[in-house]
Amino acid sequence: MLRAPVMPLPPRRSQYGVAPELVRKRAAELPDMVSVLVRDLFPDAAPVIYPGEKGLEVIRKATREQMEKVDLSMIKPGDSVNVLGSHHGFTLLGGAPYAEMLRTIRDVVRERTGCTDIRLRVGVGLRFRESEEYIKAFGLDEYYEGKAAGVAPVDEGIAIDTEIGTLYGIKKIYDARWIIHAHNSDVREVHFHRQVDRAVKPFGMSYARIETRSTYHQNLGPRAANFVARAIFDSPFVQEKFACAVFLMMSPSGVVGVDADNDLYALNDRVTYLGCRDYGKMMTLLGEIDEAITILDFPSPVPYVFAAGVIFANFAGANRDLFDLDDPLPPYTWYTEAFYGEDGRPLIEGVPPVNPAIKVVIHNYAWGGYPSAFFTEHIPTIVVGREQAELLNRDPQNITYTGNTLLAEELDTAVRFAKRVAGTDKILAYDGASGALNVSRSLGEYLLQKAPLVSRRVDGELLPKWLKQRGIDPSRFKIC
Length: 480
Description:
The protein is of the alpha/beta class. The chain folds into 2 domains: 216 residues, no CATH class; 196 residues, no CATH class. 33% of the residues lie in helices and 21% in strands. The chain is built from 16 helices and 17 strands. The strands form 4 sheets. A 7-stranded mixed β-sheet has the order 1-17-16-10-13-14-15. Strands 4-3-2-7-8-9 form a 6-stranded mixed β-sheet, with helices on both faces. A two-stranded antiparallel ribbon has the order 5-6. The protein starts with 32 loop residues before the first strand and ends in an 11-residue tail after the last helix.
């Protein structure tokens, strides 16, 4: 079941990364690299609708079918509607399925309600222009007839009265009569939200001013911050605008469907269950890796590069069960960073270390735009290419990133050196390969051996525990 490597999508042109032509070799092109499909590791993995033979048409069809069950009667022909998206959706499988869902939502709203004033608002994190790049790349500015815009957490805010006091959203998010929450179920920063209110999270993040969204990062830490997003969503101001939610439902294998509902909390239960079920096995399997050289090779900032649907930040914390709410502090969050002194040592006992199985990181291709020096402070790192090192040195969020790294001119040189230093030939490529892990042969054989044991443990022990912690009864709803 070891197969030829799955070639990742090509580099993306962006102001946050080096030019695509400067990415001279991908991890999948290295000697002895193979791929392991998710379905070979976990034969019971949810079937995917995309990628597939029918292409993006299946996304359009699934979105239409799901929106048929949604009540849109509140939207009148003369009203305005903001379709709310997030930059994260465009990093999934190249972004095309998410863009197609956004197009279809606009079409359905227009057809069913007669409303023509339909806008697209796409939230972003710390790369303030990233959403604008995606909007133009997928032609969404034209599709939404010039009414598509990226919004940043430093844009003009709007005060929202909530049951815990005044919080702040982004004014452009809420400048329409109605809003449609168009997101995805990818677990992404489970080290922050811990798969609690995952579907509600954007109301405290992508749609919120930086003063409010910082509660996730620094003020309250993992688990505790989740009530902020719920407080904003439950506010009379937001409830009077909320029409429905439409989600691209993701798994480590790809898109498993589209889900839509007028009741966001009902949808949230389904998102919670699917996230624990579908990502739980892959994340637990990655936690079984005893040693590896990790190659970053994906067009996203360091913590957000992908492997089988799991971001690198979660692999950096895979020595802990990030789904287990009894475990209070993940090995990586901004909140965790605050427990380290200037000498790089923990200030108190009990701070979990970054995953010790990661022996060396090779930064072959990953963006700046997100503070990532924490990783190079804790994991030996090699940056490939002077242009990439210079990009990071110019990035105000990463001015110390390369201070703890070595520079290699070519990927092959970096790999040879990493193998000698790490004493292992196990390689894991974080390159976003669709439905698969690109790995060295030795690591592929290791994962195939461990996967059945992990599957049984998650099904019999961990999944019931995770769901009980979140008050989820899987028998209450139909799951795609």
